[in-house]
Every structure is written in C-alpha cells, then in structure tokens.
Specification:
alpha/beta; 8 helices; globular; binds thymidine-5'-diphosphate
C-alpha cells in the first residue's frame, strides 16, 4: 500500500507521518517512510536547492526539478519497497506539484499531468491524506517555529490558491483522498488518520 500525505505549510504532516509509522510498526507491518522533495541522496541535494530562499528559479524550471526528484524517488525507493510488500508512506508526492506549481504558480494542469505521469511512470498512491488548515493559521505556526523556506515566504494569496487546488483535486478523485481538519488536537488528527488506514487495510485483507 502506498500512502501519501499532503497539506499546506504548518499543517503537521510530518508529525502525522511519524505517528502513523509508529502505529503500523507496532502492529507488525513493515513500513518505509520517505518524503518529497528528498528521499534519496540526489533528492536531498535538490531539496536543499528548492527550499533555499536565495534560489532564483522560474516556475517551469521549478516544476522540472521537482519532477526529477520524484522520478529518482519512485524508481530508487518507492517501487522497490512496494514490490517487497512494504507499506510506503510519503510526506508529499505528485499532488503537491499539481497544487503548488499548477494551482499556485499557474502552470498548465494538462501539461503538468503528463510530466507527472512520465516522472512517476504512472505510479499513483492508493490513499492520500489532505491535512487541511487555513493558510493564515499554518503560516503563523511556521513563523512561531522560526521556519521560513522559499515557499513559506510566499504571499498568503499563493497559499490560498494551493489550498483551493487541493480541494479541486479531492473533488475530482474523492475515493483516493481523505480530508482531515488539521485544526484539531494532534491526537484527534492521529485518530482520524488511523481510522482511515485501518479501514483500508481491512478491505485489502478481505
Ligand atoms: P515540505 O518539506 O513538506 O514543507 P512543509 O513541511 O513546510 O510543508 O515541502 C517543501 C516545500 O516544497 C513545500 O512548501 C511544498 C513544496 N513542493 C512543491 O512546490 N512541489 C512539489 O512537487 C513538492 C513535492 C513540494
């Protein structure tokens, strides 16, 4: 099973990924946790470039760097793990490119889908969580944590377009997505995430 987490800045994805990993391991499942950008040695170098506030990058170049990161990640980490029967949990995946570079930057969505299909060789997640939080709140959480990467420095309007983008992606493919209100205590979010995963695992084992 391939599970991905999506969400805006400060939505708590990374914490929830870790909590889900622990819970599944405790139940005896083999789990690989990974992330985009990153997840491979090449990807971690691309990540450093992509998040650096000093990087000047045009939208199309930005998209292609994320696509290169993703192609490496799928071929070197995700597919081999899935082939070995391991549950893969990725902190962000191709939906991030549709939301950020498509809806956020305004790049053509049809072109973007072709590039994503090429980069991933058609690999789609089985289940995707959207940890939904008002961008104003999310950015405030990041500011509090002293975080300010290249995206956190974008205007609020950009983050609002990203969120609307996620809503459109969910509406187009509701069976793959689970939207969870991230403006709730951590344990409540965790419980909601786990309930969905448990249900999917039960269906798989039937
Ligand atoms: P991440 O480390 O998940 O940031 P955060 O934990 O702050 O949410 O992701 C890094 C940034 O990269 C994030 O702001 C979204 C952006 N991004 C894209 O614009 N396109 C993509 O395809 C991916 C994977 C990430």
């Amino acid at each position: 099973m391939f599970i991905t987490f999506e969400g805006g800045e400060g939505s708590g994805k990374t914490t929830q990924v870790r909590l889900l990993e622990e819970r599944l391991r405790g139940l005896g499942y083999r789990v690989v946790v990974t992330r985009e950008p990153g997840g491979t040695p090449l990807g971690e170098r691309l990540r450093a470039l992509l998040l650096d506030v000093n990087t000047q990058v045009e939208p199309r170049a930005e998209l292609l760097l994320y696509a290169a990161d993703r192609a490496q990640h799928v071929a070197a980490v995700v597919r081999p793990a899935l082939a070995a029967g391991v549950i893969v949990i990725s902190d962000r995946y191709a939906d991030s490119a549709l939301a950020y570079q498509g809806y956020g930057r305004g790049l053509d969505l049809a072109a973007l889908r072709h590039i994503m299909a090429f980069a991933t060789d058609g690999l789609q997640p089985d289940l995707t969580f959207f940890l939904d939080l008002d961008p104003q709140q999310g950015l405030a959480r990041c500011a509090q944590a002293g975080k300010a990467d290249r995206f956190e420095a974008q205007a609020l309007a950009f983050h609002q377009r990203v969120r609307e983008g996620y809503f459109a992606l969910i509406a187009a493919e509701p069976e793959r997505w689970a939207r969870i209100d991230a403006d709730q205590p951590l344990a409540v979010v965790q419980g909601a995430v786990f309930a969905v995963v448990e249900e999917r695992l039960r269906l798989l084992q039937r």
